[in-house]
């Protein structure tokens, strides 16, 4: 018979960022739609240091949807993944129904192959699901010709993923509606708004999370009276305050509130029954170190925040980085990887005054911190035009 004609593969690649909440989200009021009991506010981190890359391809030759994560094929049937796929396809069908011209040539019945990978260790306990779902939704939307509000779709994959759809400083508004249509992410300020802000991620050794966030959250909602008080009374006030600190680039206010909110989130975990402990001895050591450092300087120079795991994320201004990194190096002397201890943006060297050493570096714990990642706020998802960057080949396989 006739030769099969060459069919070009529809293919799109995107990268998306990790975000770190400074006013924490903990607790859902709807588990299926992933609707939170309180609003939250986060800082999007720069993709040069932390990003997920996702390629999606569609072809009439594909027999089923398939997904590869860091090179390994994984089950595409996970409910949250399906929710995102179905929602993007539904929006694409709706858009075609509304439109007279053919918006995208891609046939919606074509199956998709999706490959995704992180440029950071997934085990590092950094919010890989947020970056992952933001990336997935961005890439599928482009593939299927969907535009407009996508944070709602990303939220269906992972709550915090809606915040990774935007750069800089991002509020996830709780919303009021039961259908979740108003539970969306909004940018408070772009990453360019506060150019001096820097972030250190202290990746601590040998942890796997004791309690998965999803399960822990539900138990907290069911059992913690403190969580209810936090959501209804404390957070609304703190959000307004945090937005003002960001607008005014007030690090003193921003830093103090960030630490207080992290502490209260972990207090609600302790108030959960049975209690949940995401912080460990090392996390507490880092908290004490930060407070000693600030006390020594007589102002808030560094501010820690911890998510559902023991890794510390520490905010500071650029002029504090070299000194604080040296304090961390002295407090947690690297076991082996002295040269690899600091990764990411360059860090200058600092000589610590004796009185600072005496006041701040009390009892060193060798090898406790695996490495420090130096980064800063960055933009939302980015499309990659260079075909050599695709994670799928012309055959639609990794």
UniProtKB/TrEMBL annotation:
Coiled-coil residue windows: none
Mvd1 C-terminal domain sequence ranges: 199-383
InterPro entries with a match to the protein in the record: GHMP_kinase_C_sf (IPR036554), Mev_decarb (IPR005935), Mev_diP_decarb (IPR029765), MVD-like_N (IPR053859), Mvd1_C (IPR041431), Ribosomal_Su5_D2-typ_SF (IPR020568), Ribsml_uS5_D2-typ_fold_subgr (IPR014721)
Pathway field: Steroid biosynthesis; cholesterol biosynthesis
Reaction catalyzed: (R)-5-diphosphomevalonate + ATP = isopentenyl diphosphate + ADP + phosphate + CO2
Gene Ontology cellular-component annotations: cytosol
Keywords in alphabetical order: ATP-binding, Cholesterol biosynthesis, Cholesterol metabolism, Lipid biosynthesis, Lipid metabolism, Lyase, Nucleotide-binding, Steroid biosynthesis, Steroid metabolism, Sterol biosynthesis, Sterol metabolism
Pfam families assigned to the protein according to its UniProt record, in alphabetical order: MDD_C, MVD-like_N
Gene3D superfamilies: 3.30.230.10, GHMP kinase, C-terminal domain
This protein's record includes keyword Nucleotide-binding: yes
Entry GO MF terms: ATP binding; diphosphomevalonate decarboxylase activity
GO biological process: cholesterol biosynthetic process; isopentenyl diphosphate biosynthetic process, mevalonate pathway
Positions of the Diphosphomevalonate decarboxylase-like N-terminal domain: 16-185
E.C. numbers: 4.1.1.33
Record-linked SUPFAM superfamilies: GHMP Kinase, C-terminal domain (SSF55060), Ribosomal protein S5 domain 2-like (SSF54211)
Function: Catalyzes the ATP dependent decarboxylation of (R)-5-diphosphomevalonate to form isopentenyl diphosphate (IPP). Functions in the mevalonate (MVA) pathway leading to isopentenyl diphosphate (IPP), a key precursor for the biosynthesis of isoprenoids and sterol synthesis.
UniProt record similarity statement: Belongs to the diphosphomevalonate decarboxylase family.
NCBIfam families on file: mevDPdecarb (TIGR01240)
Protein's UniProt name: Diphosphomevalonate decarboxylase
Organism: Ramphastos sulfuratus
